[in-house]
Amino acid sequence: MSLFEKNNNTKYMKKTLSLIAIAFALFSNAQEQNTSAERIDQAVADNIQNTKKNFQDKIDAVNRAVAKGLLTKEEADKIIAKIESSKIETLTSNIEYVIDWEDYETQMVDSLAYEDYTYDWDFQINEPDESYTDGEIYPQKTRKKIPSLQKSGFVFGVGLANLAHDNHFPNSEFGYTRSSNLEWGWMSRAPFSKEKTVVGLKYGLTFNYYQLHPTQNRYFVKDRRDLYLDTHQFTLDKDRAFLRNTYITIPLMLDFNFSDKYFDLESQKWVRKDRIQFAIGGYIGYNINSKQFLFYKNETGHLVKEKQKGEWNATDFQYGLQASIGYQGLHLYGKYDLNPTFRQEPKDMNFWALGIRIELLD
User: Fold this and answer.
1) Strand 269-273 to strand 276-297: parallel, antiparallel, or no bridges (unpaired)?
2) Average confidence score pLDDT of the chain
3) pTM (2 d.p.)
4) Backbone dihedral region of 289: left (phi > 0), alpha (psi from -120 to 50 degrees) or beta?
């Protein structure tokens, strides 16, 4: 073989080896890219699956809260709708913005921490079973925001009152603008249903003061078993001459409250929508005190104050009907005793009252 042929063979071998090296490098690079793409695709798929599970765990926790009475069905629907909306946005961002898995994972953590749907309900999910306590679903600071289904509070009422004779209200022997009813005490409301709280039972314990101011300078006189009105020998202070019966009373009413209280996701607060409320029912009471108060000037011009404690023929027990209608904590109420106010004379007289009651139930 000549020197010229050897040189040609050497050049041919070098070109062949170079082409093989280039082809191998291109093939290796393609395999590496395919492997990297597959790894990213698998990572994205795994993360999407985990994201779906996390959202489903939150929805399951909301449903368990409804079953335990911590949330109403309407409140749960609003929360679940927000979670579903956030899930779609999150899954869409997984597809559009994932370039590198490490960067994606960091962005996902930040996103879950600051999305709008994180309404201060820090769900702690370990296993989807029924062994959760309230504290496992809601942190301590959030449970304080959940309204109780039962409401209790102080009530105070004042109104005009009088006696109806044979169920006739006009022509009373007692002053219409001076005779009064004063009520104060504690009242509670418990709904019949955990999901729909419109209808409930209102009950409590109150003190009622029934105050009767006779007209025409008269006052009550007790003669053995009879009780009657007689004209006083001195001029009575008509505003401070009255008979007062005090009762401890148990009211019991069917209450219709159309107000609503829900958790606002935007403001992160419980929002109350007050609407009209009305109640109808009855009451039963027991007389714990009867007194007559007289204020007048005697023949020497001295002011005399008399407080006459006695039985005054007042019935021991009372029972009657009452109704109220109001908005927020202010209510108009009406009462009517079904039993007569006095056991003997005067007969067939029933107490009634119309007034305003403040109910601070929360």
Assistant:
1) unpaired
2) 79
3) 0.59
4) beta
